[in-house]
């Protein structure tokens, strides 16, 4: 992947050589419009849409507009270091690619999980690989190169399947497990309801299940012989509605790898998670796709305070470099992005994802430079001012 520090200059100099615009849009709005052109319209709506009237996802984005980064002068930020430390790994950037359970079918070749893994390998931006993959997790892990990856677990209502997934993720070499708690049942998603469509119910992105020996042992006939029956078994066991804090000991006991809980936004839940021995919090409202009206960025400072030094990953709403810088200044250890890289995958596969990451990182780098912040550690709440 191109060095993001030279990214903008590279585009301007290429333009000098003639009519040579960048291959993909450089803004989120442009990416979304381009992805809308490329994706089958129901799949586009599935990705772009969310819960209820979609105020929640719009609120995720507008929450960032209420903060300004106050530039400091003569502060020696000519060179920036965007690297962070996460679970003992030095990461070159503060970004993560959040799990997208349909990324597999967002590329033309329907190997979007592998394209994401390859972009992760080339960029050093870790992939949080969804339980819902079009290619099995072992193949995805093998494409990550030297970049650490995380496996996101949706706990099925069949503990032995969950245990099998975690064993496989460990054996495949993932560096941590992210358990998503906010999707034990589906939110009210008007676009998908109107189209009467849901990708996984049509059998997409179930490779981890169909390749799993425990899942397969539950079926009368194999998924190859009867994919519809296998898909219906997935639907019947996907969620785990009765899971409570009492089950955290079971989750913690599944692995010695770093364990993060995704979907936590309340400080009391952070404390319960910490008391239960988790290693990190993934503060998120699922991109506004699950609990309608749930806040995200507004909760981040309280989550960080309650985490008391434990790493906090934040996602839901960042669309630009300044957004990333603001989330870091509010205390996030790392920032996850969802739809932006999904649209990159839709318009250009691996190259499209790499381009989107380059734009975000180039803009975050410039934002830090022009703001006078040389490193992520220099970004504190003092860097921000509340607007309007
Ligand atoms: C199409 C789509 C599929 C998603 N699938 C998953 C998933 O499989 N597992 C999960 O934990 N989160 C999933 N998410 C939520 C993302 O991980 C992330 O929390 C959210 O997209 C962040 O918001 P953003 O899209 O505004 O960046 C999905 C999001 C989208 C848009
Ligand atoms: O669409 C999603 O956001 C998601 O995470 C999901 C939830 C259930 C099944 C498949 C994907």
UniProtKB/TrEMBL annotation:
One Pfam family named in its UniProt record: FMN_dh
Residue stretches making up the FMN hydroxy acid dehydrogenase domain: 20-388
Alphabetized PROSITE patterns for the sequence: FMN_HYDROXY_ACID_DH_1, FMN_HYDROXY_ACID_DH_2
InterPro entries given in the database record: Aldolase_TIM (IPR013785), Alpha-hydoxy_acid_DH_FMN (IPR012133), FMN-dep_DH (IPR000262), FMN_HAD (IPR037396), FMN_hydac_DH_AS (IPR008259)
Keyword Oxidoreductase: yes
Matches recorded under Gene3D superfamilies: Aldolase class I (3.20.20.70)
Entry keywords, A to Z: Oxidoreductase
Record's keyword annotation contains Oxidoreductase: yes
Cofactor(s) listed: FMN
Superkingdom of origin: Bacteria
Similarity annotation: Belongs to the FMN-dependent alpha-hydroxy acid dehydrogenase family.
Protein name, UniProt field: Lactate 2-monooxygenase
């Amino acid at each position: 992947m191109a060095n993001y520090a030279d990214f903008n200059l590279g585009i301007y100099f290429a333009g000098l050589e003639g009519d040579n615009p960048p291959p993909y849009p450089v803004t989120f709005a442009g990416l979304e419009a381009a992805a809308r052109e490329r994706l089958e319209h129901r799949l586009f709506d599935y990705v772009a849409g969310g819960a209820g009237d979609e105020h929640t996802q719009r609120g995720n984005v507008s929450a960032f507009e209420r903060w300004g980064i106050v530039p400091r002068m003569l502060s020696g930020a000519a060179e920036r270091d965007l690297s962070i430390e996460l679970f003992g790994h030095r990461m070159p950037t503060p970004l993560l690619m959040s799990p997208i359970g349909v990324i597999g079918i967002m590329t033309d070749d329907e190997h979007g999980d592998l394209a994401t893994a390859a972009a992760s390998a080339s960029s050093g931006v870790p992939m949080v690989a969804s339980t819902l993959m079009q290619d099995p997790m072992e193949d995805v892990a093998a494409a990550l190169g030297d970049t650490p990856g995380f496996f996101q677990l949706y706990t099925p209502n069949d503990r032995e399947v969950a245990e099998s997934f975690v064993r496989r993720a460990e054996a495949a070499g993932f560096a941590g497990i992210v358990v998503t708690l906010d999707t034990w049942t589906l939110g009210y998603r008007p676009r998908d309801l109107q189209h009467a469509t849901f990708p996984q119910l049509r059998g997409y992105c179930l490779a981890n299940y169909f390749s799993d020996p425990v899942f397969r042992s539950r079926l009368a006939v194999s998924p190859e012989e009867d994919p519809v029956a296998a898909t219906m078994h997935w639907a019947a066991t996907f969620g785990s509605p009765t899971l409570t804090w009492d089950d955290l000991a079971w989750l913690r006991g599944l692995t010695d790898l770093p364990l993060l809980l995704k979907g936590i936004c309340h400080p009391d839940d952070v404390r319960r998670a910490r008391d239960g021995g988790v290693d990190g919090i993934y503060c998120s409202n699922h991109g506004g796709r699950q609990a309608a009206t749930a806040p995200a960025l507004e909760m981040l400072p309280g989550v960080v305070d309650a985490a008391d030094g434990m790493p906090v990953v934040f996602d839901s709403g960042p669309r630009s470099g300044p957004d990333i810088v603001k989330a870091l200044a509010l205390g996030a250890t790392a920032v996850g992005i969802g739809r932006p890289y999904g649209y990159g995958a839709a318009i250009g596969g691996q190259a499209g994802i790499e381009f989107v990451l380059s734009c975000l990182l180039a803009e975050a780098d410039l934002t830090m430079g022009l703001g006078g912040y040389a490193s992520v550690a220099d970004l504190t709440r003092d860097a921000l001012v509340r607007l309007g």
